[in-house]
């Protein structure tokens, strides 16, 4: 059965945040990603090639469309369409800041690039970080590029969009970390197994208001240390290097 | 002076590797990146807004075109064009494997995503890694997306495209590292300040032939370690976490 023009139009409309928000859905593509998400989020619609569908006897999906590879490529947002695409319902999570008391969490202050956000979700999953608090201006987690870049991490990591200054002010005696050029060498600090690690916008870093609320300023050493450099690290890269060090210290206790 | 149709066509033609190769040039855009590269590579052509040009009394550029922001946006490959674009000559580096004897280098086995390659060059710059050896099928460093993602790192990090098995076989008594799920916890290893760190393709990892030549298999621990996971790390993220650990150990000696 071919996909109707209206269906393809609907799928493409999910590139825009306002449509995803109205419909409360998001799009995911590819066998690995769709396979990972099927057990986690209700699936409204799934279109796949006969080959992909033949692997499953039963699928928890409201509506299934068997399509040709050609038809799938008309609907797909990927450069190289991959056997299956699916529309899932957006989950609704309760935002409870108390998780920061007993676990390590991330906060993102206006991260703008969808790929960066997806990559951060994927690495949070690797490092066992279950909650990410995002400023309201952070890119939408349901952006298709973000979802693809999570590689399934979105099934396990929960995102909460909330004003970061209010969130941080609500915490009592909790370490709030951020990386700064004038921070302390993170390898020389004893890092905690709870609290918040704040990462900033790609161009502007952490905003002034949030910066004032950070009580542990860290620095990721470059190498060799005495070198004059103009360089910096991509926000997802910096997040990974910081999270790896928190977890290295926690595992070696 | 407006950009001619032919000029715009020429600029756009540089999206394709074969045209970049024939012309031996590459494109870079934005004040930070172009500013960083001007001192490092001969510049054949530069188009910029009057505001950008007014900062400079003299520019080492063969041909300069003062253009409106509107004109620039017609030539630009970026979603948000940024004041200046420039065409630089590709440098030619001699490939000398002996640098691996006395410094830490990276090898990339078929990394495919231009953004990943650019991000790896940027982090190599941060961690003082000057040479990256790429398999011939690795994405072209002069892809405009790669150049943009290096954020200027391309001015300091040298890339060499060469068959990796031959390169590794030419080394004697040199540590050759790679990350594998069955490798040894990298935090429990003494890591060297010279040698080669091999990173693999996004989907398939390190190829079989190269894998057999790796003499130090490493593992990046996830957290908590006992967790059953289906996740993995993006190749640029894994490269960063590994390089950071090599440099942490080197700095603490």
UniProtKB/TrEMBL annotation, chains A, B:
Residues 6-86 form the MRM3-like substrate binding domain. GO terms for molecular function: RNA binding; RNA methyltransferase activity. GO terms for biological process: methylation; RNA processing. This is RNA methyltransferase. The keyword Zinc does not apply. InterPro entries: Alpha/beta_knot_MTases (IPR029028), MRM3-like_sub_bind (IPR053888), Ribosomal_eL30-like_sf (IPR029064), rRNA_Methyltransferase (IPR051259), SpoU_MeTrfase (IPR001537), tRNA_m1G_MTases_N (IPR029026). Gene3D superfamilies: 3.30.1330.30, 3.40.1280.10. PANTHER family: RRNA METHYLTRANSFERASE 3 (PTHR43191), RRNA METHYLTRANSFERASE 3, MITOCHONDRIAL (PTHR43191:SF2). Belongs to the class IV-like SAM-binding methyltransferase superfamily. RNA methyltransferase TrmH family. Keywords: Methyltransferase, Transferase. Residues 104-243 form the tRNA/rRNA methyltransferase SpoU type domain.
């Amino acid at each position: 059965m071919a996909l109707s023009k209206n269906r393809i139009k609907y799928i493409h409309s999910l590139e825009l945040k306002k449509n995803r928000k109205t419909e409360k859905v998001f799009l995911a593509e590819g066998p690995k990603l769709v396979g990972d998400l099927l057990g986690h989020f209700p699936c409204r619609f799934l279109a796949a090639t006969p080959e992909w569908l033949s692997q499953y006897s039963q699928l928890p999906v409201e509506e299934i469309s068997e399509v040709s590879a050609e038809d799938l490529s008309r609907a797909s947002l990927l450069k190289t369409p991959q056997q299956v695409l699916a529309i899932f319902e957006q989950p609704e999570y309760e935002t409870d800041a108390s998780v920061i008391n007993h676990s390590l969490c991330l906060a993102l202050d206006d991260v703008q690039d969808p790929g960066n956000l997806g990559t951060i979700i994927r690495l949070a999953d690797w490092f066992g970080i279950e909650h990410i608090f995002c400023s309201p201006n952070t890119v939408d987690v349901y952006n298709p590029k973000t979802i693809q870049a999570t590689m399934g991490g979105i099934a396990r990591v929960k995102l909460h969009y909330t004003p970061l200054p209010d969130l941080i002010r609500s915490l009592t005696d909790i370490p709030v970390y951020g990386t700064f050029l004038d921070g302390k060498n993170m390898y020389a600090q004893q890092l905690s197994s709870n609290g918040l690690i704040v990462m900033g916008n790609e161009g502007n870093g952490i905003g002034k208001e949030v910066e004032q609320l950070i009580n542990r300023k860290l620095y990721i050493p470059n190498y060799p240390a005495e070198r004059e450099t103009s360089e910096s690290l991509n926000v997802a890269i910096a997040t990974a290097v910081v999270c790896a060090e928190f977890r290295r210290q926690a595992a070696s206790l």
